[in-house]
Specification:
The protein is an alpha/beta fold. The chain contains 14 helices and 17 strands. The mean pLDDT is about 90. The chain binds ligand C2E and calcium ion (2 copies).
């Protein structure tokens, strides 16, 4: 980020910053040396002399506290200036536990020279604002640790359950497949929405294990639903089961071997398995995504791009990556009735997907007119509360046994 780094030149004796000042920048010594000193009652005490490649002043930025020492050029020196944002943005984006650790370490390091110099070993006074910021991060970290522990237990018990939402062929009204959606009933807190626990599971990495569980369970349930389907609809194409896979699950390519083993063991025909991925995977690292998706395709399964049109969706994803299905996000479907722009967008996305030979699933159909418009645009499939809400497997088997169509 060249615009955030520039150079500062100092002559011998120039003050870079003084103890007690607010700090906005940190510095990396390019040439020369800088002396770090404390103003003690007994006089100035040099605690360090920093040379090429060393960083100065980062601690007060991280701790959001005044400079804890004075920095003066010992000779002619050239420093690279590291702006506050450049340093703090990645830290702010980091996991709260990591942030807590960074802050604690910095706080201890900052105060260490003074404790040693003053020799009384007392705990230094930290200002109110710093204490509050500290408490906040600590609380966040503790909450995170707690919920991670709870999720780990939830897998073992299990408190997780998969619900299935039918996906309908919009032309024929036949059941075409179902999406597996995770549900968590916490023993005390009751129902926890996936919108709440999935992001936490992703940040903590728990999603890897939960994703394995979802695939394994989804495939097992699929066999039961498939059996019912064959009885009710002996001449129809067997349904597919759609399982959500977080991009986080594919950071390591070796995870794909684990998923392959789950698929093999399940005995489900891979052509009936669809994995739904969001574009975050492609945004994060397109090259890695290309390798991962090709590797997944080698398993003989189908791939869907989920929530298309919400994030950084790029049309180029559609032909660069081996997707079979595009899922149009609910946000467009909801707005179609009142908003012509949404209709145009949906029509354009649908037209393009059809041209590219992709299947389309429209999400979140709640009204009959939405169903009709989408069918008119050539969308092959749809899911939504109009047809069926996500529900436990028993309910889905019942729908199938009753030979329900829409
Ligand atoms: P998603 O993959 O986009 O799933 C579709 C969501 O839309 C589901 O929310 C579903 O209940 C909801 N939905 C379907 N039809 C309608 C409708 O007509 N109206 C409205 N208002 N909503 C509708 P849900 O089950 O709360 O899941 C939320 C998100 O959590 C999912 O969005 C998905 O991103 C994530 N998720 C759920 N299960 C899993 C899982 O097993 N693994 C991963 N990685 N993510 C999951
Ligand atoms: Ca999905
Ligand atoms: Ca979706």
């Amino acid at each position: 980020m060249p615009e955030q780094i520039y150079v500062r030149n100092l002559k011998a004796g120039d003050v870079l910053f003084r103890e007690g000042e607010e700090g906005d920048d940190a510095y990396i010594v390019e040439t020369g040396t800088v002396e770090i000193s404390l103003d003690l009652p007994s006089g100035k005490k040099v605690i360090a002399t920093l040379g090429k490649g060393e960083i100065i002043g980062e601690m007060s930025l991280i701790a959001d506290a005044p400079r804890s020492a004075t920095a003066i050029a010992a000779e002619e020196s050239e420093l690279l200036v590291l702006k506050r944002d450049r340093l703090l943005k990645p830290i702010e984006a980091a996991d709260p536990i990591m942030r807590l650790m960074i802050q604690m370490i910095v706080d201890r390091l900052r105060d260490a020279p003074r404790w040693m110099q003053e020799g009384d070993g007392s705990t230094p006074d930290i200002s109110n604002a710093r204490q509050l910021a500290f408490d906040e991060v600590r609380e966040l970290a503790l909450r995170r640790i707690q919920i991670e522990g709870e999720m780990r237990q939830a897998i073992e018990v299990p408190e997780f359950e998969l619900h299935y939402q039918p996906i309908i062929n919009l032309k024929t009204g036949m059941l075409a497949g179902y999406e597996a959606l995770m549900r968590w009933t916490h023993p005390e807190r009751g129902f926890v929405s996936p919108g709440e626990f999935i992001p936490l599971a992703e940040e903590s990495g728990m999603i890897v294990e939960m994703g394995r569980w979802a695939l394994e369970t989804g495939l097992r349930d699929h066999l039961a639903m498939l059996e019912a389907f064959k009885k009710s609809f002996p001449d129809e194409k067997p349904p597919f089961v759609s399982v959500n896979v977080s991009g986080r699950q594919l950071f390591e390519l070796s995870e794909i071997d684990v998923l392959r083993d789950i698929i093999k063991k399940s005995g489900v025909d891979p052509s009936q398995i669809k994995l739904e991925l969001t574009e975050s995977l492609m945004v994060h690292d397109a090259e890695h995504a290309a390798v991962a998706l090709e590797k997944l395709k080698e398993l003989g399964i189908l791939l869907a791009i989920d929530d298309f049109g919400t994030g950084y969706s790029s049309l180029s994803y559609l032909h660069r990556f081996p997707f079979d299905t595009l899922k149009i996000d609910r946000a467009f479907v909801v707005n179609m009735a009142k908003d012509e722009a949404s209709r145009k967008l949906v029509r354009a996305i649908a037209g393009m997907a059809i041209d590219l030979g992709l299947d389309i699933v429209a999400e979140g159909i709640e009204e009959q007119h939405e169903y009709d418009i989408l069918a008119g645009y050539g969308c092959h499939y749809g899911q939504g509360f109009l047809m069926a809400r996500p529900s436990p497997i028993s309910n889905n088997i019942e729908l199938i046994e009753n030979a329900t169509t829409w």
